[in-house]
Design goal:
Layout: E1 4-10, E2 19-25, E3 32-41, H1 44-50, E4 67-74, E5 86-89, E6 92-94, H2 100-103, E7 115-116, E8 121-122, E9 125-126, E10 134-138, E11 143-144, H3 151-154, H4 160-170, E12 178-182, H5 186-197, E13 201-206, H6 212-217, E14 222-225, E15 238-243, H7 251-255, E16 258-266, H8 279-282, E17 287-290, H9 296-309, E18 315-318, H10 323-331, E19 338-342
Parallel strand pairs: 12-13, 12-15, 13-14, 15-16, 16-17, 18-19
Antiparallel strand pairs: 1-2, 3-4, 3-10, 3-19, 4-5, 5-11, 6-7, 8-9
Helix pairs in contact: 4-5, 4-9
The protein binds zinc ion (ZN) (2 copies).
Length: 346
């Protein structure tokens, strides 16, 4: 079998706008799945990578790690997928498989570093992401997209969905638990929906009030504007706070919102180191932690949960021609709430 040539959108060089490019996919190995891509979400980390915020890469580079498509062909030893199945691919396409986190199925925390879906080296081959017509991925890094989910609106679940689902599960969000989500963008809005579906009481903490109605519609019990400071009556209140924004916040002030045994979990990456007096942790046995994307098994669990509870992302579907404009609008927070590219337009 020979390489498969596919059309894609990527950047031809450092910090350049995206344009049509042609890439090749490897011939199918025995454990590979060839996926004809239907939809690809635009994640903020695509923009950071493409615009050079995280350094120079090898080019051309095609981003995209929120991928939904249909299986077209499978290798001889593939057990779980058949042509015609709808599947998804998220942030990783390989990991060492041997280290402690890998043995636990937590590939995001692979001690060798998981192999990212784009811009990484997988056995010497540069990975290229989902802004393309097709992708070849090992079966063990493919998840099934349940029939109940709208495939375009499900695409962002592969990154934004699992990034919020994983800490919500880990810290026990559910009935009787009070959860706050800081920021309601691409990540946050899915987090609100998932936390509410888990049965938690959800509060959105947001600088502006512009998304208040949406927050309530997504299942939040309340929306609190933080523009004039954090309300007194929320001190010692929450069991879990997920911070989805990457701006530098007053960590101590947010820790003060946690009640006994509560946890503040960072999902975004602020520029400055986090700082807080230690007593903010000791007095109520609070935790300050961080979380990455979940593993593959947990991603499948998340998709099944979302199908069962009717949770998908709110999306604006665009053509490939609109990608650069969509990047500008995402940076300007001018999207409700995630752009998804129709792969038929690549
Ligand atoms: Zn992402
Ligand atoms: Zn590993």
């Amino acid at each position: 079998m020979t390489d498969l040539t596919v059309r894609a959108w990527g950047t031809p060089g450092f910090s350049q706008p995206l344009e049509p490019v042609t890439i090749t996919r490897r011939p199918l190995r025995e454990d590979d799945v060839l996926i004809r891509i239907e939809f690809a979400g635009i994640c903020h980390s695509d923009i950071h990578t493409m615009r050079g915020d995280w350094g120079e890469r090898e080019y051309p580079l095609v981003p995209g790690h929120e991928i939904v498509g249909i299986v077209e062909q499978v290798g001889d030893k593939v057990l779980n997928y058949r042509p015609g199945d709808r599947v998804g691919v998220g942030c990783f396409v390989n990991s060492c498989g041997q280290c402690h986190p890998c043995e636990l199925g937590e590939v995001s925390y692979c001690e060798q570093g998981p192999v990212l879906t784009y811009g990484a080296y997988d056995g010497g081959e540069l990975t290229q992401g989902g802004y393309s017509q097709a992708i070849v991925v090992r079966e063990s890094f493919v998840v099934a997209v349940p029939p109940g989910l709208d495939p375009a609106a499900a695409a962002p679940l592969l990154c934004a969905g699992i990034t919020t689902y994983s800490p919500l599960r880990h810290w026990g969000a559910g009935p009787g638990k009070r959860v706050a989500i800081i920021g309601m963008g691409g990540l946050g809005h899915v987090g609100v929906k998932i936390a509410a579906a888990m049965g938690a009481e959800v509060t959105v903490l947001s600088h502006s009030t512009a998304k208040r109605d949406d927050a309530l519609r997504f299942g939040a019990a309340r929306h609190v504007s933080t523009a004039v400071g954090l309300p007194e009556d929320l001190h010692n209140y929450f069991d879990l706070i997920l911070n989805t924004v990457s701006v530098d916040l007053d960590t101590s002030a947010y820790l003060g919102l946690l009640r006994f045994d509560g946890a503040l979990v960072q999902l975004g990456l602020p520029g400055l180191p986090l700082q807080t007096p230690t007593r903010m942790l000791t007095t109520r046995r609070r935790s300050l932690s961080g979380s990455l994307v979940g593993g593959i098994r947990e991603t499948q669990e998340m998709l099944d949960f979302c199908a069962e509870h009717g949770v998908t992302a709110e999306i604006e579907l665009i053509d490939a021609e609109q990608i650069n404009q969509a990047y500008d609008r995402t940076v300007a927070s001018d999207v409700r709430y995630r752009f998804v590219i129709d792969a038929a337009t690549f």
